Description:
Number of strands: 0
Shape: globular
Radius of gyration: 21 Å
Structural class: mainly alpha
Low-confidence stretches: 119-124, 245-253
Mean pLDDT: 75
Strand content: under 5%
Number of helices: 10
Number of domains: 2
Amino acid sequence: MNSTSTIDKYIKLSWQIVQNDVVLACGLTVIMMVMGAGVGIIGSLLLLPVGFLLLFNAARKLFYTSLYGQGATMYQTLPVKPEEIVLGKVFAMTAADMLYMVVMVACLFAAALLSGDYTQGGAFELPQFVANLADLEYLSGFDVPYVIAVGIAGYVASEFRFWMLVLFGIVWYNSLSQSAKGGLTKLAAVAIVAGVQIGLGYIVRMITEISGEPYWLPAESAGILLDVIAAVVLYKLTVKRMKCSDNAGWEVA
């Protein structure tokens, strides 16, 4: 069996782990839209934290429980390598996150429009990117498909890098010896992940805004490239940690 087909199967297996939480989160978001149409967008926003908690639970199952929790024994017997495990899990979680975000944004807009909150002086304002797409005069100097493609590519790259970073933090912590683990070490892992995420996000934003012109191809490409490079580095570090002595059971031929 070639590596590509193995990764494809592991992505599907990883998706099965998160699909219930993601579908439930999307369903609650649709309910939020219906509530927003009746009681206003502000009231329906009360359901947003529930959706994010479900997404967090999906990530916990995928990145921790199946690797180091109740499902670890079964997963260590699968004929997959650490490289395939890492890519399969991060691809699946990125897809789940993007699906939830698409449904959430679409429902927020629909609820705002149906409830009348999206009006001049209303309670809900469109994000600048979407507002720009609705501004024909603003778009006269841009190729709309290009703007959309850049926006999607940047979002996908940043989400993939984020989930690769989260998985690296979990693998790094759990690859430590039992004597090295503890509350302070766990806080350090969280702080490192948060610091790297904030730092990379800030650098990417500075790069994309360096020209002072929105959607400038060299700057946007450089920002996306930085996310890709960061994801590749984190991928290699994660695989290396999974192959260390405490996790030797993951290296299955």
